[in-house]
Amino acid sequence: MAERKFLNELLSRMTLAGRRRRAREEGSEKSVMALFDRLLGEEGEASGLVTAMQALEQFEAASGAEKLGVFSEIAGRYGVDDEALSAAINGWTPGDTEAARRIHFAAEPQSQDLIRRLNRVPGATARLVKMRADLLAAMRDTPGLKGLDQDFQHLFSSWFSRGFLEIRRIDWETPAAILEKIITYEAVHEITGWDDLRQRVADPDRRLFAFFHPAMPADPLIFVEVALLAGIPDAIGPIIASERETIDPNDASVAVFYSISNCQKGLRGISFGNFLIKQVVAELQRELPGLQTFATLSPVPGLRKWAEAGDVDLLSEADQAVIASDDGPTPEIAARLAARYLTRARRSQGTAHDPVAHFHLGNGAELHRVHAGADLSENGQNNAWGVMVNYLYDGDKIENNHHAYATDHKIAAAAGVKVLAGK
Asked: Which domain holds residue 304?
């Protein structure tokens, strides 16, 4: 069986290579859109693979402006078949589930079929993730591409569902190519080099876990860094310091998630973090049953931008004057502003204004403590005047907290945070 499978794969590759070579020899330098048109009309699998590969190669070689033009054409050309949809709708009567399914399939735009056909190429999933990253960049100036982006999101939500994800612990034995990507992708607290990385993945009281996908086995989707400690921390410096004392992980009672980094721009809006945290908690509890508390030490990335925009409903004239002053607020005032921002500032749909707060509150965490002067880095000062916060994952309250936030946008916050927010 193994020999037959090998021979079949070998013959398939040889056939594909031959078709691809002939296409080149014929001078088939068609435009990307012409290749897309051909791909949607292809019936043969091998010829379709050749066309898909050519289309991906030409798209990837295009300039930013050319890619924008391609996206605009896809959005305008590959929409819904109005006649087929109209016929499906006309054929539906209440209770006819088969007719309802026909409407569902007729309502699907051709652009989704195009993305699926491109994905038949070996290794294409990662290339399509990069294509969506290009699309997101193009959308900044071209909001009319939102529908096409929804097509990508719809398909990626299925392709990258939890059932396909693999959790791995990253340690010093992990292949160097993946370790290099961890350094590059770290988005919260910069990894300054290999020595810094070694501390984060190889010290006995540190852990790093990542999600991978079978179609992208050497490229992490998201990762979380964990510190095993004796208490809930109030500053990031001691956690990432090059000179620090380690502890025996069996003596730790607290696991602190101090950095969560999404790695793929093209997967923005596809949620992995909630699954990752739950899985990491399970892994840690299995390894270290003495752990009693699971919390974060999190940044407040939206604080300073929100405060400097001058929210008149939540900021007094005195607050705004301090914020606008050359020295800015003192650490204590910044902490009070952060507590108010995190508990009261909302987006139009009623959710927490801060993206990190929204993520953890949506997962059922409690806003536990606010710490002034917790992040002295340039990034920490620029984002939140150095303020950081703890979100507490209390197993007895997670479900109730999640439900209250999801249904009523109620923010679970400790009494001390509420008092600080009221000052």
From this structure: 298-421
Contacts by 15-22 with C-beta closer than 8 Å and gap 24+? 15/46, 16/46, 16/49, 16/50, 19/46, 19/47, 19/50, 20/50, 20/53, 20/54
Active site residue 154: no
**Of 261, 296, 331, which residue sits at a domain end?**
296
Considering the entire predicted model, what is its pTM?
A: 0.89
pLDDT tens-place string over residues 316-359 = 999 999 999 999 999 999 999 999 999 999 999 999 999 999 99
* Residues 19 and 94 grouped into a single domain: yes
For 121, counting Cβ atoms within 10 Å of its Cβ (0-12 exposed, 13-18 middle, 19+ buried), the class is: buried
Measured in degrees and rounded to the nearest 5, phi and psi for residue 387 equal -75, 140
CA angle 227, 229, 231 (to 5 degrees): 130
Catalytic site residue 360? yes
Q: Which of 213, 358, 360, 371 is catalytic?
A: 360
**Residue 406 neighbours by CB under 8 Å, 6+ apart:** 362
Q: Which among 244, 234, 258, 167 is positioned nearest to 203, based on CA atoms?
A: 244
- Listed residues 129, 159, 189: the one ending a domain: 159
Backbone angles phi, psi at 392, to 5 degrees: -105, 125
Which of 298, 353, 358, 368 is catalytic? The answer is: 298
